[in-house]
Design brief:
Elements lengths: L8 E4 L20 H12 L6 E4 L5 H4 L5 H12 L3 E2 L5 E2 L3 H20 L5 E4 L21 H12 L5 E5 L6 H7 L5 E8 L21 E6 L5 H19 L3 E6 L16 H18 L3 E5 L5 H15 L14 H9 L6
Parallel strand pairs: 1-2, 1-5, 5-10, 6-7, 6-9, 7-8, 9-10
Antiparallel strand pairs: 3-4
Helix pairs in contact: 1-9, 4-5, 7-8, 7-10, 8-9
The protein binds zinc ion (ZN).
Zinc ion binds next to loops.
Length: about 350
Amino acid sequence: MSGALGTGLYFRHSACLEHDPRAHLPTHPDTPERLLEIERRLEACGWLGWERREAPAASEQELELVHTARHVRGVRELCEAGGGAIDADTFVGPASYRAALHAVGAACAMVRALLAGDAAMGFCGVRPSGHHAERERAMGFCLFDNVAVAAELAIRELGVQRVFILDWDVHHGNGTAEIFRRRRDVLFVSIHQAGLFPGTGALQDVGSGEGEGYTLNLPVPAGSEGELWCSLLEHVVLPAAAAFEPQLVLLSAGFDAHLGDPLAGCRLRTDSFAAMACHVRELAARLGAPVGAVLEGGYEPRAVAECVQATLAALGGEGEAVSAAPEALLTPRAAAQFGRYWPL
Ligand SMILES: [Zn+2]
């Protein structure tokens, strides 16, 4: 891919600030302040030289690349009727549908731009997030699966044969997993805290049918630190991803594994995310594939903003991918589980 080294594309839209679940639940953690804090921080450092682009709204046709027409209509009609609760965590208001269209539209526009060679990396600073949304169900603050739509768009319309999706949000990306679990053209890898919402993503779940071996779940214990996450990334995820030879790398970039996050119990520091992003950058460079990241969770606005800045800097070339020792317990277990499918 062409594009000057270090220059990425940052997709955003003010409509993403209008979705506010606090109208239904005043203590809801998914607030517009998350995005405002990210943008304040990036503004203060000149956006690290990244080019900002307005995210277009996705079309319903694009949503229906992975979602059923019934699901799309259901969310739209609930918002048009003034909003309400979808489940105990997931709420919409009148502006939520439009916010979601721009969130999906950002991911689609990013993938189009990356594959056209406009840049080698992109980031979508959008909400609502997407990775819990299944084909026909909104859940876990997510209405439509931003990353999944973008991956499917790349495959169906932009000539890509294989997409690697890494989900480092602290929660299992059950939506993306469900959408692609029978597919071998999408390698989906999720590192997440075991036992946390939504409860799926066991090590033994490797996808099914044609897609067996193309879903890798790496649950880690509460309290785990960056060293463990980086070690699994280096010794399990990257060898599998390299052997898969994707032409596009997508990142479900949640930052709720940060030690400051109120919803989870992992202990990653900001530089842990930078370290992971360096590994992803080097993998993508070796493969000649662009990297596109889409914001997922992360509920301590200052920590999220710091992590986004660190991730953009690392994707843009700052720092080296540092090698970590294999983790004594989890690396061999994961290698035994996935070694049947990948050269680990
Ligand atoms: Zn999360």
